[in-house]
Q: What sequence folds into this?
């Protein structure tokens, strides 16, 4: 997403110096903690997602209001803010709720690390959507990586050895792939629906919409517990603060100022971190073939996203 010249020239130097790649990296590391905290909470997919959103809103809404006041002090921003399309952010938020609920189900079924690897197939889906909607170019190397990635998904999902140790590797793989489509849609709608300079505002709006869609889906699937234990609430509050507030705001701010290929590559830190944390914290050790599949998936999407398309001049961001 382009950063308008008026905003770039009027903003303080300190703000211009923030590298969007650094924001995306830190945000990705925060998100990598999410499946660990979800597993520790021991709650159903709908319960985890609904409370993740609701507990984040008291933090996100003030952040959004502070951001709005700050942007109003910058010359020409009121017009820019009006150019945002909140309804697209709401659509993205509804998809985010589906993504997080399905992903939570995948965490329970196939493990924190493998589910996060599989859901990051969005790294392939997002550039395809960007090509269809925004006309961003797709390289041949990207297309060649897709069948390799699909093979890795099959291995990571336990096709070779049945995913020994996982509760339901096939179901977990299906849920993670469905979540990946919803995740890619969220990132795209957030990108094209947010006004230049906005970070917290769109994430707060999307989180509110996600609470609605996750409650609906969660109520139909395993139910939503409105009175979880205090221990579960503690883990979910930590999830809301780190995974929702810090993670998504940083990712939204970084991704909005980066070409899709660069942002998608940085997001690969999520599955790598989740696999390592899953083994260290939860003692969830994937089988050898699942680990091979994870490596294949991560390698394929990294190859697909690397130099997938050169950023257009309006997307270029000064370091």
A:
């Amino acid at each position: 997403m382009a950063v308008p010249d008026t905003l770039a020239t009027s903003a303080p130097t300190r703000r211009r110096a923030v590298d969007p790649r650094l924001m995306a990296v830190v945000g990705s590391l925060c998100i990598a903690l999410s499946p660990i905290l979800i597993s520790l909470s021991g709650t159903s997919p709908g319960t985890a997602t609904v409370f993740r959103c609701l507990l984040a809103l008291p933090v996100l809404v003030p952040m959004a209001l502070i951001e709005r006041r700050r942007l109003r002090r910058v010359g020409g921003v009121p017009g820019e803010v009006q150019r945002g399309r909140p309804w697209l952010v709401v659509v993205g938020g509804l998809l985010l709720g589906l993504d997080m609920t399905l992903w939570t189900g995948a965490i329970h079924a196939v493990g924190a690390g493998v589910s996060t690897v599989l859901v990051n197939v969005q790294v392939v889906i997002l550039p395809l959507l960007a090509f269809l909607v925004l006309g961003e170019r797709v390289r041949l190397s990207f297309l060649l990586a897709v069948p390799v990635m699909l093979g890795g998904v099959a291995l990571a999902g336990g096709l070779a050895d049945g995913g020994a140790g996982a509760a339901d590797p096939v179901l977990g793989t299906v849920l993670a792939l469905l979540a990946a489509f919803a995740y890619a849609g969220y990132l795209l709608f957030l990108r094209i629906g947010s006004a230049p300079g906005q970070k917290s505002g769109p994430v707060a709006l999307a989180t509110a919409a996600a609470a609605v869609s996750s409650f609906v889906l969660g109520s139909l699937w395993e139910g939503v517990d409105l009175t979880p234990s205090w221990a579960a609430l503690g883990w979910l509050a930590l999830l809301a603060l780190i995974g929702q507030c810090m993670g998504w705001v940083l990712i939204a701010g970084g991704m909005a100022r980066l070409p899709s290929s660069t942002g998608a590559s940085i997001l690969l830190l999520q599955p790598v971190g989740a696999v390592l944390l899953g083994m260290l914290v939860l003692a969830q050790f994937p089988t050898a073939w699942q680990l091979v599949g994870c490596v294949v998936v991560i390698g394929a999407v990294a190859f697909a996203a690397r130099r997938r398309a050169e950023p257009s001049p309006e997307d270029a961001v000064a370091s």
